[in-house]
Specification:
Strand content: 15-25%
CATH topology of the largest domain: TIM Barrel
Largest sheet: 6 strands, mixed
Radius of gyration: 23 Å
Protein name: Amidohydrolase
GO molecular function: hydrolase activity, acting on carbon-nitrogen (but not peptide) bonds
Pfam families: Amidohydro_3 (PF07969)
Helix content: 25-40%
Distance between the termini: 26 Å
Organism: Streptomyces agglomeratus
InterPro entries: Amidohydro_3, Metal-dep_hydrolase_composite, Metal_Hydrolase, YtcJ-like
Shape: globular
CATH class of the largest domain: Alpha Beta
CATH architecture of the largest domain: Alpha-Beta Barrel
Number of strands: 25
Length: 541
């Protein structure tokens, strides 16, 4: 097999040891690393058709993998008015006013990234924006993507004029004491009431938005991602981009299993496993055990300060347990969204029960794990459950002094147990890192930096939230290489730079392990390789 790529003058970083390999050059063919050696040895493998890149001492790591992201929905949801930089109600009003001025008559206004902390403890509702949104149909997605604000005109067009009942136990059209909607919609089932009457981009526009987002992810150093949904046209888009040679990330996709899924639905999910193309495949099932703490839909062992977050997402949590058992026996890995302590405990209980029933080893995961008590930590390692964490959520949506909405809702004791990355790792758990984009930015250097400094990304002078839970630089790198590969059952395919593994590689201008955490997001990504082919190449190379 001819050599398709050689990298020369490279510093090859091993994320297991944190040391550079003794070799300084690499060859790839057929999408795999075929040789490691010195420059003359590897150069001799090249012919006229080989891509030869002299890295001039740049640092090569295994390709970075985002452990939790939503490419298709993220590409669509982040196409509109970005409200993530607003820190108070007045700034939101000003942003909305600018957005309204640019609207055509009758057009809808879409916003995303709204932080509930802008309301400073007051109710999250549209009332503060009624004047600026008078007569304008608007949907403002809160940062958690589990809730949104709909303007009065949007509610009117959707025919939403009072409370409703949903199959998702925590879904709600929030109403005032008189039964009038406040504009706040909780969870997908409620949000869809208004979303379905709002105009959407065309299919071609959505495909182009996705392709652009994936190209930007590759330019940020990502070679792969664990996509936590297969909704709508997602799988069709991945297939089309893959067949056209335009898919720049290797994607592992987990379709959703919602409350009310019957035995036939579970069999369909099992039958779907393994379907895919060259660079993507369906592997696993995503399930929600609760919502979010910020909007009062998490499942806590004790209610939050408003008396909320008391219920599971599933009206009957034992139905979730039965489905976990069915999927486990079929060898299907489950990735469960579980944010509150009661939710996490129930997931672990369900996995323990499923394992007791026998069957082969399956690598189940819990996503998010925002607050858990001490007695929960050890169970991850004992049950072989992977901890999938998003440290930038702690950095950017909470505060060290616990004056933020998340911390106020939980109270001091639970807020002090925020995103226990260090404790989970020390207890023996495999910790995978990700962004949960579009909830937080996808650049992996920012995710790894947040795991190390735990400070607000927009103001690194502010104190860290729970600095004792910080990871080392090497641990953070493992969370997006070795551990991410292990979570996908690909530890022999990816995650390290060795002969025979995939030539999925990320190249940096300097060593990410010795770059200060606060400087890491600005470290230049010089080259991203997928199957030995560049998906991003800096002009300096």
């Amino acid at each position: 097999m001819r050599t398709s790529l050689t990298l020369l003058s490279a510093r090859l970083l091993d994320p297991v040891t944190g040391e550079f390999l003794p070799q300084t050059a690499l060859a790839a063919a057929g999408g795999r690393i075929t040789a490691l050696g010195d420059g003359p040895e590897i150069r001799a493998l090249a012919d006229a058709s080989t891509t030869v890149i002299d890295l001039d001492g740049a640092v090569v790591t295994p390709g970075l993998i985002d452990g939790h992201l939503h490419p298709v929905s993220g590409a669509e949801l982040t196409h509109g008015l970005d409200l993530s930089g607003c820190t108070d109600v007045e700034q939101v009003r000003e942003a909305l006013a600018r957005g309204v001025r640019g609207l055509a008559p009758g057009a809808w206004l879409h916003g995303f990234g709204l932080d509930p902390n802008v309301f400073a403890g007051r109710p999250v509702e549209t009332a503060p924006f009624d004047a600026v949104l008078d007569g304008v149909p608007a949907l403002l997605l809160l940062f958690d993507a589990h809730s949104m604000l709909a303007s009065r005109r949007a509610l009117e067009l959707a025919g939403v004029n009072g409370p409703q009942t949903f199959g998702q136990a925590t879904a709600e059209v929030v109403c005032d004491a008189a039964g009038r909607p406040t504009g706040l919609l909780l969870e997908d089932a409620a949000c869809e009431l208004v979303e379905r009457v709002a105009p959407r981009p065309t299919r071609q526009e959505r495909r182009e938005l996705l392709a652009a987002a994936l190209r930007a992810m590759a330019a940020a150093g990502l070679t792969g991602g664990h996509a936590m949904d297969a909704n709508g046209d997602s799988l069709a888009f991945y297939a089309e981009l893959d067949e056209a040679g335009e898919l720049p990330l290797r994607l592992r996709v987990a379709p959703w299993c919602q409350p009310g899924t019957d035995a036939e639905g579970v069999r369909a999910l099992i039958g779907q496993q393994g379907a895919g193309g060259r660079l993507w495949r369906t592997d696993g099932v995503k399930i929600f055990m609760d919502g979010t703490i910020d909007n009062g839909t998490a499942w806590l062992e004790h209610p939050d300060c408003h008396g909320e977050s008391r219920h599971a997402f599933w009206p009957d949590p034992e139905e979730y347990t039965r489905i976990v058992g069915d999927l486990h026996r079929a060898g299907v890995p489950i990735a469960t969204h579980a944010i509150g302590d009661a939710a996490v405990r129930h997931v672990l209980d369900a996995v323990e029960k499923a394992r007791a029933g026998g069957g082969r080893e399956v690598r189940h995961r819990v996503e998010h794990i925002e607050t858990v008590p001490d007695d929960t930590l050890r169970r991850f390692a004992e049950l072989g459950v992977i901890a999938s964490m998003q440290p930038t959520h702690c950095c950017d949506f909470t505060r060290a002094d616990h004056t933020d909405n998340w911390s106020r809702r939980l109270g001091e004791e639970r807020a002090s147990r925020a995103w226990r990355c260090r404790d989970l790792l020390d207890s023996g758990a495999v910790v995978v890192l990700g962004s949960d984009w579009p909830i937080a930015p996808y650049p992996p250097l920012g995710v790894m930096a947040g795991a190390r400094h735990r400070r607000p990304s927009r103001d690194l002078t502010r104190p860290p939230h729970g600095p004792e839970q910080a990871l080392t630089a090497l641990e953070a790198l493992r969370g997006m290489t070795v551990n991410a590969a292990y979570a996908a059952g690909e530890e022999h395919e990816a995650g390290r730079i060795t002969v025979g593994r995939r030539a999925d590689l990320t190249v940096f201008a300097a060593n990410p392990l010795t770059t200060a955490a606060t400087d890491l997001p600005n470290l230049p990504v010089l080259l991203t390789l997928l199957d030995g082919e560049p998906t991003h190449r800096d002009a300096r190379l």
